C-alpha cells in the first residue's frame, strides 16, 4: 500500500507540470536586426574606404608638395649641406616625410647636437638645428674638438681652427670605454676653460695647454715660457684670483720659474728653476 501511494503521488506531480509552449519565430524582428548590423558594417566599410581614398588624394595633390625648405640655427654649417643631409627635395609630398628619420640623418654630422624637423602646411618644411660649440682641442694621438658639454665630437681637418687651448693627459681608449671618471674630468676641463675665458688679466690668451696630471688634478701651461701652473681640482675661480693678485709681479720673472702651485689654501707657491736646468734651455 505504501508503495502504491508513492507511485500515485509521483504521477500526480508529473501530470500537474505545466507544458511549455514554443514561441513562434519573429521573422520581422530578426530581419530588422540583420538590417541594422548590415547597415553598420557597410557604414564602417564606407568610412574606411573613404579615408583611404582621401589619403591617396592628399598624397597625390599638388597642394601638399614641398616648395620651400627653411633652415634655422646654423652658423658653421651652410644651408645647402643641411638640406643635402635631409634628403628632402622640392616636389616631394609633405605627407611622405619621416620626420624622425630626417632628424637622425642630419644629426650624423658631428657639428649637429640636435635637429628638429617640422611640417609647415601646406608646402613648407622647417629644419631647426643646435650646433656644438668647441671650447678646446683634445690631443688623443689625433686632434679632436671638445664641446661645452664635455663631449669629444669631431676629428679636426685642414679647414678647422686651431685657436683653442690644447688638452693633454687623456687616453683615447679610456675615453671610448665611457668611464665616468674621464667624463667628469672633461667637464672639469670645460669649467676651467670657461673660468679662464671670463678673465682679462690671466685668461685663455695667456695659456697654451691644459694638462691632466697622473693624480687627476689639472695644470695649465703659460703661452710664454711654458711655465706649469698647478690648479688641482675645483675652486678654480678662487685659485685664479690668488694668482692674478701677484701675476703682475711674477710676469717679468716667468723665465726663471719651474712651476707655480695654487693647491695650498690661501697661498701661491713658486719654485725657481735650477740654474743648471735653466742653462740647458
Query: CATH topology of the largest domain, what is it called?
Result: Rossmann fold
The tally of domains stands at 2
By secondary-structure content and strand pairing, the structural class works out as: alpha/beta
Cα separation of the termini: 141 Å
For this structure, what is the CATH homologous superfamily of the largest domain? Cell division protein FtsQ/DivIB
Cα shape: elongated
Query: What is the mean pLDDT?
Result: 86
CATH top level assignment of the largest domain: Alpha Beta
Which segments are poorly predicted (pLDDT under 50) over 5 or more consecutive residues? 277-281
Question: What can you see in these coordinates?
Answer:
This protein is of the alpha/beta class. It has two domains: 62-131, Roll (Ubiquitin-like (UB roll)), CATH 3.10.20.310; 134-280, Cell division protein FtsQ/DivIB (Rossmann fold, 3-Layer(aba) Sandwich), CATH 3.40.50. It is 39% helix and 23% strand. It has eight helices and twelve strands. It has a nine-stranded mixed sheet, with helices on one face. Strands 1-3-2 form a three-stranded mixed sheet, with helices on one face. Strand 9 and strand 10 form a beta hairpin.
Amino acid at each position: 500500500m505504501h508503495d502504491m501511494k508513492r507511485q500515485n503521488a509521483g504521477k500526480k506531480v508529473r501530470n500537474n507540470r505545466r507544458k511549455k509552449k514554443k514561441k513562434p519565430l519573429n521573422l520581422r524582428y530578426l530581419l530588422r536586426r540583420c538590417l541594422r548590423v548590415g547597415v553598420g558594417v557597410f557604414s564602417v566599410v564606407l568610412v574606411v574606404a573613404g579615408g583611404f581614398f582621401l589619403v591617396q588624394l592628399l598624397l597625390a595633390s599638388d597642394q601638399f608638395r614641398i616648395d620651400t625648405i627653411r633652415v634655422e640655427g646654423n652658423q658653421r654649417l651652410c644651408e645647402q649641406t643641411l638640406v643635402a643631409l635631409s634628403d628632402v627635395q622640392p616636389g616631394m609630398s609633405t605627407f611622405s616625410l619621416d620626420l624622425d628619420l630626417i632628424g637622425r640623418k642630419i644629426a650624423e654630422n658631428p657639428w649637429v647636437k640636435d635637429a628638429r624637423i617640422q611640417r609647415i602646411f601646406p608646402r613648407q618644411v622647417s629644419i631647426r638645428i643646435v650646433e656644438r660649440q668647441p671650447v678646446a682641442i683634445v690631443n688623443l694621438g689625433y686632434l679632436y674638438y671638445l664641446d661645452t658639454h664635455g663631449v669629444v665630437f669631431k676629428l679636426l681637418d685642414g679647414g678647422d681652427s686651431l685657436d683653442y687651448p690644447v688638452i693633454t693627459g687623456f687616453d683615447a681608449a679610456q675615453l671610448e670605454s665611457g668611464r665616468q671618471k674621464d667624463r667628469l674630468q672633461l667637464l672639469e676641463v670645460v669649467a676651467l676653460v670657461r673660468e679662464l675665458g671670463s678673465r682679462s688679466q690671466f685668461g685663455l690668451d695667456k695659456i697654451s695647454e691644459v694638462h691632466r696630471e697622473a693624480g687627476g688634478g689639472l695644470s695649465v701651461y703659460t703661452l710664454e715660457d711654458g711655465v706649469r701652473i698647478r690648479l688641482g681640482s675645483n675652486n678654480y675661480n678662487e685659485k685664479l684670483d690668488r694668482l692674478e693678485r701677484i701675476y703682475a709681479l711674477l710676469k717679468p720673472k716667468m723665465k726663471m720659474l719651474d712651476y707655480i702651485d695654487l693647491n695650498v689654501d690661501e697661498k701661491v707657491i713658486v719654485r725657481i728653476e735650477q740654474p743648471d736646468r735653466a742653462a740647458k734651455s
